[in-house]
Write a structure and sequence with these properties.
4 copies of one chain form a homotetramer. Chain A is mostly helical and about 190 residues long. Chain A has 2 domains: about 1-50, Arc Repressor Mutant, subunit A, CATH 1.10.10.60; about 60-190, Tetracycline Repressor, domain 2 (Orthogonal Bundle). In chain A, about 70% of the residues lie in helices and about 0% in strands. In chain A, helix 1 packs across helix 6 and helix 5 (about 80-100) packs antiparallel against helix 9 (about 175-190). Chain A is elongated, with a radius of gyration of 19 Å. Chain A starts with 8 loop residues before the first helix and ends in a 5-residue tail after the last helix. Chains in contact: A-B, C-D. The interface of C and D includes residues 156 and 189 of C. The structure holds a DNA duplex (21 and 21 nucleotides).
Chain lengths: ~190, ~190, ~190, ~190
Amino acid sequence: MQQGSFKGELKSRIDEAALHLFAERGVDATPVPMIAERAGVAVGSLYRYYANKNELVARLYTENYARLAGELDRIQAPEPSTRRKIAAMVRFICEFFDREWDLARFLLLEQHVRLKTYRGAANPVDIVRDVLADGMRRGEVRSRDGMVATALVMGPVIQAATFLTYGRISGPLSNAADEIAHGIWAAIVRQRD
Amino acid sequence: MQQGSFKGELKSRIDEAALHLFAERGVDATPVPMIAERAGVAVGSLYRYYANKNELVARLYTENYARLAGELDRIQAPEPSTRRKIAAMVRFICEFFDREWDLARFLLLEQHVRLKTYRGAANPVDIVRDVLADGMRRGEVRSRDGMVATALVMGPVIQAATFLTYGRISGPLSNAADEIAHGIWAAIVRQRD
Amino acid sequence: MQQGSFKGELKSRIDEAALHLFAERGVDATPVPMIAERAGVAVGSLYRYYANKNELVARLYTENYARLAGELDRIQAPEPSTRRKIAAMVRFICEFFDREWDLARFLLLEQHVRLKTYRGAANPVDIVRDVLADGMRRGEVRSRDGMVATALVMGPVIQAATFLTYGRISGPLSNAADEIAHGIWAAIVRQRD
Amino acid sequence: MQQGSFKGELKSRIDEAALHLFAERGVDATPVPMIAERAGVAVGSLYRYYANKNELVARLYTENYARLAGELDRIQAPEPSTRRKIAAMVRFICEFFDREWDLARFLLLEQHVRLKTYRGAANPVDIVRDVLADGMRRGEVRSRDGMVATALVMGPVIQAATFLTYGRISGPLSNAADEIAHGIWAAIVRQRD
DNA sequence: CATGAATGAGCGTTCATTCAT
DNA sequence: AATGAATGAACGCTCATTCAT
């Protein structure tokens, strides 16, 4: 308990180091000893918390992806209209990138590998799709294929985040949140005729 | 020309095999001997066309990414309005995914690794950004940060393509092209009044 | 003495656990933590009794091998004739396998690794060889090379025990003791005429 | 073809090196790089011939064990009497140890690990047991449990070989072949009464 | 030119051993 | 004395790359 050591400290140090290196270099370009070194632990210690490297990656992905979905759901639930639900979610994702840079980039990077086999209860795509389905039922959102609508909503946010990781957008993503949300809403809103 | 072999045939067989395996399994999970086997050439022959595996990946990415940019530019140029330029580009990308499934998935998959260091003259992002900048100047497109606008345009297409690779959207992407283009235009059009 | 713990209890729990696992899985396939777990002690405690894993194996082998030699000697000593000495020793070894299954298998398994460097005072091979030398001197046993004679005596018993460990002989080995002893005696007895 | 290299040379160099090191140090105490070094090949080359270390050990064991059984069978078949069959087999095994020292020691050493799971058609134990069963049927060999009889025959030979590996018997084992065979025969022959 | 057997650096992983508590 | 989390050397194995044929 002295000198800044407490139970579970190693695990979170490993998680943090892994997340950073995975985001910065990619999973495959990050050897286990490199994670251990950055975490300041021995290689063997990593295997006390994870059965193998793949489990580390999978748990890091799955747990955070599910957590993100949960938070996204909690963010949209209290909002009265679909428009405000979407604005809240867009802002939340933007802030998520600003706040949890390593984690967000890791989730973005690994989606192509992990999402094919991801079988978690909660996931952000379904949250958005459900909000949109509800919005269509309520007549606030123009009726169209659910996944196409979801692409219209998630696409701009993910793309802006991607530009951020390439350095093509600078400064906090939250600054662009309202602009993005506004554009998205125009793309999906049911036009009065 | 006899015996079914001509200059450059081997190279294109290698490229095709690599593209398919990279798209299907990922670059890191694809050993060079596996590419050679699928291409029907010896491992050593692959090294006659590419100095190493990384160069194969880089050239495959860079050349096709630049080619895609060029075609995108050629597609939008003749169109008279920004709206039609964007519709043409969206349709082109959708058809690109339907037509060149392996290549498109490879470009999507590798963007996060390659785009950080990509230094090619032509690239799709700049094409779209330029079209939008022009549209803003012409007063057709609402004025906002160029990259945010670009995200609003590219995001939905890329996201729909991504959903296609996860199997969350089925059937040819071109079927959704008009819907997507329509939504995108609503997101960026300059509102009258 | 209360709470079921007394001096040396831990050591014997460790020994027993190690013996069982070594016999069942082999020495190299038995991690130290697995021994500790089966013994119900911490890994560190094991190192209070033995300097390292090799010493555990060596002491387990050496002490029990020497003890076996001692008991074998005590068994044959009171017997009046070589024939009865051998019958007694054969029966004793058979019963030893039936009674101390783990220990016996361990000694059998490790002999090839340990016997090369074994330097203990007492050992079963010498006991048998001495009994036979004595028998030759007394004219009861046919004269031949001492170690060849020893092989004729020990071989059948060890081989039967080996078959038992492979499951090629079933039931208690003691059941076969008389048969084996009878055969052995015929093999070494000095023929009259 | 020049300078002493021909197809299959590497494999046999690997086999020889492995056999020697396994016999000398034991399988578990022999790292793959050590085998490669002694064979004068790179580590990777070993994996061109064997899928993994265990397969190397298993194939080395299984193939040679089966071959030994085959040769043993071919040795005993032409002999007219059980007595001469056994004498021939004993001599053959003794010469086998003298001739193929590394291989013989390896088979002896690994029997405890491999024989439990060995499922090959041919094996020396069954050959001997069958010869004995036949001898009992013919009235040449005293009737008793087949495996006990087999232990009486194989035991002395294996034990003598074991003594040879410990240095307790010196010189070629073939020198002792007749003595051993004579003893074995006395142990199992059907006594006229 | 094309071949593919051979190479060996570097990976993921295990486990005997230590030592702060 | 007893504990068990932490250690890191050493293992088995892979695969990008080379080069004699």
